[in-house]
Design brief:
The protein is of the alpha/beta class. It is built from 15 helices and 18 strands. The strands form three sheets. It has a nine-stranded mixed sheet, with helices on both faces. A seven-stranded mixed sheet has the order 3-2-1-4-5-6-17, with helices on both faces. It has a two-stranded antiparallel sheet with strand order 9-10. Helix 5 links the parallel strand 4 and strand 5. The longest helix is centred in the middle third of the chain and has 26 residues. The model has no long low-confidence stretch (mean pLDDT 90).
Length: 491
């Protein structure tokens, strides 16, 4: 089924890191899907760029293998694949030197068509690549720049990255991508709140008891150990993905879906987060590190063993009790957690409503549970509203807690696009709604930095937790001392 889309004119997409893992797993398959569905017009060009010395035919072989592995057989045809591959070309470019840049400039020419540069490379190369793009006069009024996280490792370094890319590209040309914001379920959070009269009147501290946001992985660090040990879960997941989800839950209704209207409201949430300093960090944050255990039925190593190191204080798990100091959310805790080697792979937002003020039902009717709205981001995107009903049949009033369920795969009879598919074409359309603005990134770091500093000065090490569990026991205590519990049911 072809999606209803805003048509675009032919464009050029230059993918730096064009032979890397992100390009192989996500970017090339996503671009193929958009081409297959008629969203990439004839005459568009996709240009791979990296240090590897490859011929154009070898790069097309690389792309073909990517499509065959990461695009389902029923979603591709030989004819479509052949035509898509004809759009691809390749230029060997040295990001830190002069080699290849003149050839790339000749390849692009002086066309005024939309030109996107996707930096699917490490952030240490952002500055060098942007300098070369500027030096060789590759930036046009219709150019865009796409950069992946991490954008810095602190407020200071994030500002340095933003200054480096901002010296070549204007802010309205920079697209800071967070693929979580492209997920259908995240977009449906906006629709649930602002396209229905049901939820928004209840979306405040008078009716909501607390909010939980969980991003859990069963995998360990794998081959990312060198990067991960310099980042940790707080920088890798909380500063970007989780805080962006929190913003969408907590923000005020924007004036419109205009990019700056939405991002203005998200920024207000970030600035309203109650600071967590050294005095409070021990009470409202938990950090952990996985030890040996079992995952997906197999024995797995500890983080230290995977890292092949003697010791490390890097956290692979974080839980935080966050609060937002404004009228809508005063007194409502937001419990955030993320970790590796946990019991299940799941990302979800749980809105827990306040209990009813008084039960009219006789004892023996069953326990009355609070209403919950569960928004599942992965692995199976869905929305569930948990409510109380009467169990059918005679014999008195028996209450039962059941979900009203909308699973995407069951509700819609067509393939569910990957988040990157939407975001890659939003770049071409110039729609920045789902991308982070500079001040958002820096406001998030301004909240994260004091937590990192508090941990560093505490002299403590992360709490150990067994792989295949839900993290250290301290994270359970973080919630249960408030009389609450983590939501861990299968959606």
């Amino acid at each position: 089924m072809t999606s209803r889309v805003i048509p675009v004119d032919p464009f050029d997409y230059v993918v730096f890191g064009g032979t890397g893992d992100l390009a192989r797993r996500k970017l090339l398959p996503s671009l193929y899907h958009r081409f297959h569905d008629g969203q990439i017009p004839d005459g568009s060009r996709i240009i791979g760029a990296s240090r590897r010395d490859l011929s154009e035919s070898k790069y097309r072989d690389f792309a073909r293998e990517s499509i065959e592995k990461f695009v389902a057989k029923e979603d591709r045809t030989a004819a479509k694949t052949k035509k898509f591959l004809s759009m691809l070309s390749y230029v060997a470019v040295d990001a830190t030197g002069a080699s290849g840049w003149k050839e790339l400039a000749r390849h692009l020419g002086d066309s005024e068509r939309i030109r996107a540069f996707y930096l699917a490379v490490g952030p240490d190369l952002f500055d060098d690549i942007c300098q070369q793009i500027g030096k060789h006069k590759l930036v046009t009024p219709n150019s865009r720049l796409v950069i992946e996280k991490p954008i810095g490792k602190s407020l200071e370094s994030a500002r340095a990255v933003n200054n480096a890319v901002g010296a070549v590209f204007s802010e309205d040309q920079i697209f800071r991508i967070d693929h979580y914001l492209g997920k259908e379920s995240v977009q449906n959070l906006m629709a649930l709140r602002f396209a229905n009269a049901l939820y928004e009147p209840l979306w405040n501290s008078a009716h909501i008891d607390h909010v939980q946001i969980t991003v859990a992985e069963t995998l360990g660090v794998g081959t990312r150990g060198n990067y991960y040990d310099t980042a940790g879960a707080l920088r890798d997941m909380v500063q970007n993905h989780i805080l962006q989800l929190l913003c969408l839950v907590a923000m005020e209704p924007p004036e419109s879906m205009d990019a700056n209207s939405v991002r203005d409201e998200k920024l207000k949430v970030l600035k309203a987060l109650t600071p967590i300093d050294a005095e409070h960090a021990a009470k409202v944050t938990v950090r952990g590190q996985y030890k040996a255990g079992a995952a997906n039925g197999d024995a797995v190593k500890s983080y230290i063993d995977e890292l092949d190191a003697d010791e490390s204080r890097t956290e692979t798990f974080v839980a935080i009790k966050a609060e937002i100091a404004n009228w809508r959310w005063a007194g409502v805790p937001f419990y955030l957690r993320t970790g590796k080697r946990l019991a299940d792979r799941v990302s979800e937002i749980v809105i827990v409503f306040r209990p009813i003020p008084h039960s009219i039902f006789p004892s023996g009717s069953g326990q009355i549970h609070t209403n919950r709205l569960v928004i599942r981001l992965q692995p199976d995107e869905a929305v569930k509203q948990w409510i109380m009903i009467k169990d059918p049949g005679p014999g008195g009033m028996r209450l039962k807690h059941i979900p009203l369920d909308m699973a995407w795969a069951e509700t819609f009879d067509h393939r569910h696009p990957d988040a990157y598919e939407r975001l890659l074409l939003d770049v071409i359309r110039g729609n920045q709604t789902l991308f982070m603005r500079r001040d958002e990134v820096e406001a998030a770091w301004a909240w994260i930095d004091p937590i990192i500093e508090a941990w560093s000065h505490s002299g403590t090490t992360p709490n150990a937790y067994t792989s295949g569990t839900w993290g250290p026991s301290a994270s359970i205590a973080l919630v249960e001392r408030d009389g609450r519990t983590w939501y861990e049911e299968t959606v």
